[in-house]
Amino acid sequence: MKRDVFLTLVAQLKSSGAGLWRHSLNTANLTRALLKLFPPGTLDVCEEDLFLAALLHDVGKTQLDPALLEKPGPLTPQEWMVIRQHPSLSVALIRQLDPEIPARITALILYHHEHWDGKGYFGLAGTAIPAGARLLAIADALEAMLSNRPYRPSLTWAEAILEIEKNAGTQFDAYLVGKIVRDCQMIEKDYLTENETASLTVPSLFAGSKPAQ
Ligand SMILES: [Fe+2]
User: Fold this and answer.
1) Is residue 70 classed as helix, strand or coil in its secondary structure?
2) Structural domains in the chain?
């Protein structure tokens, strides 16, 4: 991805409301931290692709009504239909700016709401869901639980991990969850930010002269 396209998408996340930038940055950092728990090559995804996908996974939400994103109460079926479009909207928006974006990256974004048991947005199940998307789904859920919402306070790290564990084998890949539960004390959580204006402090994507592809 070209640097200017990347920065345009980041600017969109930053300028939207509903805590989207903070969630995106935290989720990207957390996804990368989770990936590091696995020996290199264990999961069929490279760190840079996964970080980029995690950072941009919800960028399609910038096209949706912020009032809907922040709605505290239960959503109507129609509202759910709109929300469920956001992975496709994310990919469409990115493709519009970067038609060359590799399918291996857009697949991670498109399938970040799949469930291991096939009950997610597109109905993909098990290993048909890319491994990176399965890991991103866990980080996404963890980050949401660790954040304050208008309708509930944040969970502690231990409570959030317990919730993930409860949903292993149904919503989440039990192999990934097992490893994360065993080794999560190794995860540094200092970088998780509550700051809406936090800047991207993880620029390895564009390190050196060679831009990330
Ligand atoms: Fe999402």
Assistant:
1) coil
2) 3-199 (1.10.3210.10)
Higher pLDDT, 60 or 193: 60
| 187 Cα–ligand 1 center, Å | 23
Query: What digits encode the pLDDT tens for the residues 99-143?
Result: 999 999 999 999 999 999 999 999 999 999 999 999 999 999 999
CA of 178 to the centre of ligand 1 (A): 23
Alpha helix ranges (H) inside the chain? 3-15, 20-35, 47-56, 66-69, 77-83, 86-97, 103-110, 131-146, 157-166, 174-183
Q: Which has the closest alpha carbon to 56: 67, 129, 16, 124?
A: 16
- Please give the distance, rounded to the nearest whole angstrom, from the Cα atom of residue 181 to the centre of ligand 1: 23
How far is the C-alpha of 163 from the C-alpha of 159, rounded, in Å? 6
Ligand 1 midpoint to CA 208 (Å): 31
CA of 92 to the centre of ligand 1 (A): 14
How many angstroms does the Cα of residue 112 sit away from the middle of ligand 1? Answer: 6
Partners of 172 in the beta sheet? 168
Give the pTM: 0.90
Angle between the N-to-C axes of helices 3-15 and 20-35, in degrees from 0 to 180, rounded to the nearest 10: 120
